[in-house]
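Predict structure. Chain length: 253.
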Amino acid sequence: MKLISWNLNGIRAVQKKGLAEIINYLNADIIGFQETKAQDDQVLEALKDVDGYHIYSSSAIKKGYSGTAILSKKKPIEVSYGLGITEHDQEGRIITAEFDQFYFITTYVPNSGGDLHRLKYRSSWDKDLLEFIQAKNNLKPVFLCGDLNVAHQPIDLKNPKSNYNKTPGYTQVEIDGMSNYLSAGYIDTFRHFYPEEIKYSWWSYRFNSRAKNVGWRLDYFLASQNGIEMVNDAFILNDVMGSDHCPVGIILN
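Prediction complete.
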């Protein structure tokens, strides 16, 4: 099986750039989208030319903001939305799909904001999300994917020194939040297979950053300890355009 995660930064914008053709090219069994920036009916409309997938969408109350979706060739046993915490469940940031052998969870983790005004909220999200996936992991293996909005190590961004504790996504609070997942037994699949490889999944639209490869690795697939044995490989698809992020994924045996 091929599992993919992709922050679209606007599903309707990517639709105009050939989203249906890109999905066909990716040929994934399950896809998790983040930042759809659309209401549920608009997500379905943007995917009207996509065949062969069951589609599940979670949109924010605020229009044109946040939002996640799951596309799956096989119908999940059950699909649920949110963390079950009102404070967190206004922005369409998480969908959980249960399959025979695992849970597939896609999430768009809150950005701390340019002035870090949401850093405290972001920290509480990380804590509550970890508790949520731990509860699922007690039942069956978990694959958590999405834009986790953090570069965990210096290797995960082009300019670590100038960004440390100044830029959202590379503060010690956010780094610690990610470390807590790993300490709880979740495995960063890309680093598991490629511990030394420099590869990014997001580039600013400014300063020609993508062409210069001045980027950050913000998009992840985390596997629970009991799920990593199912994973054959992990990948980052830098050549797939359409968003300021690129798709990331894993291959299951």
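Summary: The mean pLDDT is 98.
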